[in-house]
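Q: Can someone sanity-check these two? First one:
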Amino acid sequence: MNSNIIAVMSGKGGSGKTSICVTIAKILALQNKKVLLIDSDSGTGGMTYYLGLNIVQNKKVGLLDLAKDESLTIKDITQKFLRDENINFIGIGNHRQYSRNNKKALTLSIKRILEKVENSYDYIIMDCRGGLDDETVEITKLVNDIVFIVEPDTTSFQATQYLSDTLSDYKIAHKIKGFIINKVFDDPVAVARNGAGVFGGMYLDAIPFDIEAMRSFLIGCIANEKSLYFSHVWKAISKAYPNEIKETPYKTLNSKEYNKITTLNPNAQLGNLIIGFISMILISLLLYSEYFAPLEILSYKIILYSLFVIVLLNVSNFFKDNLGYVIKRIFQLLAEITKN
């Protein structure tokens, strides 16, 4: 088999492309595709550090070491995912001692790897550095497809447009498969329409801002398979390769639903629900006393003051977070007691 080699790029850093790369690899692995992830960002080595927290064991040896040490083999720098046998990973290696004067070292290592392993994987995904430099341009010459990760702000949009224009200057724009809008809070239609006009590739999908997915990334884990983040990445990559990748079985948002996304974490959401429920009960008591059975003045004041306090507490995410945590722990303890 010949590998489909994909470069994931962004006009600037911080777009979330590293997490998206890993999520794409996981989606492909779920469909029994063999995947090789390559961290080709010699500037930060973000994917190497991310995966090194929980997902791979060795982050010390990688691409740049292969360029310096001829005794190393590709097998020496290839690591398996600890919990997924379908995914392998090659980290950046010791990028702190990497000499920028030797600009061809990285691309020569990548070329050497691709020549050796391109028949061993269904997909090879390269996480490129944010922006564009000589190394990244050389990498794009080695791949089949390019996918842009864009944020829905003016700076990211313009940076991606510059990226697209520069690739066009190098006669590489035909490789642009499409673009994914990441960290979306609102209706993405306008950004998608404008992007399709200037980026040179099709609009793949918009990934909603998902605080739990971000938390997973920060602790070195992959987003939950049933999360909105995961399902929208799945939707995007299946649109890019409809004949090879099945559509996501999980829920995705339509364009009008993005602005309904909450940035609260699950504990805070549960706390918010509890506060809403208590508020509804208090308001119901007030209405009942008004129309059916008047309460004593003391009881009426207690309910009114309680409602006032609830309204004040509803402003505090800290309170809602802790309330949600306590309620969740109570249910967990009850479940354990019931089992025993």
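And here is the second, same format, sequence then tokens:
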Amino acid sequence: MSREVVKATSWGMGTTLILGLLIFVGSRNLAHFDAALVAYTTAVLFATFGLTYRYAMWLQRPPTAVYWRRGWQTFFKGGHRSRNLRAWVNHVFNDILINRFILARDRVRGVTHLLIMWGCIIAIAITFPLVFGWLHFESIPDDLSLYQAYVFGFPTFTFPVDSVFAFFAFHGLVWSSFIVIAGVMLAMRRRMRDEGAAALQLFVEDFLPLFLLFAVSLTGLMLTASYTWMRGYAYDFIAILHAITVIVTFLWLPFGKFFHIFQRPAQLAGHLSRGAILRARQGKLDEEQVREPGWITQLHS
């Protein structure tokens, strides 16, 4: 077994173990962990190991490793930290949070990415704390019109059951499902009508991710429709179907196209490296900041 595989495996196991401990501690020794959700949690732990393993292997590839190492060395170099911090914040906001580089290419394509990305972020921000037992709600015995929110087992805040906050909080997954479905529809439209995209697309890389996102979102909405308007009709079947779609999505996550989501933050180091090269060529960077044996050559080799 190569050194790279051992290192990646260690990182994967360590990250998965840390998450498992956080679930155990954050749910107060599993007191607030719902045993019915153990399959979801297992799928998330598997995805955590797979993503960390692949991420570590990717960072050890020679070109990626050089960009990663030199990028952060540039970032922490004395005399340029404030400028580098501003550049880093700018890249985070423009390249990750609002996908400006995609919007610049095609506005519809950029909106598609934003809908899918933020729909998934909202869903994850709601689902993970609930599944892991980090967040739960209880009625207040003395006033059943109020809910008490508990974070990691500690009481935090109360809110009325019929408040606007409660409505949006308890239906957050509904809103996120609609957002994701809208993004998936736009993506499918492009896949079916754009001849350039159609010539290069593959089922596993381009259609399967969209099918999985659509299936997870649709079955989630079906659950809401079942207990809201259909008196729980077929709820058990829909719940199992939804669980299958979610678990399959998490199990597939480390191996498919969604991995690029996790690559994007690491590419910020590449931006810093390329910025340092550009400023060096323009004479705007101290010579000592780039005078390390052959690193500019390494970046372009």
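A (reply): Looked at the second one. Residues 285-301 have pLDDT under 50 and may be disordered. Residues 27 and 90 are 36 Å apart (CA to CA).
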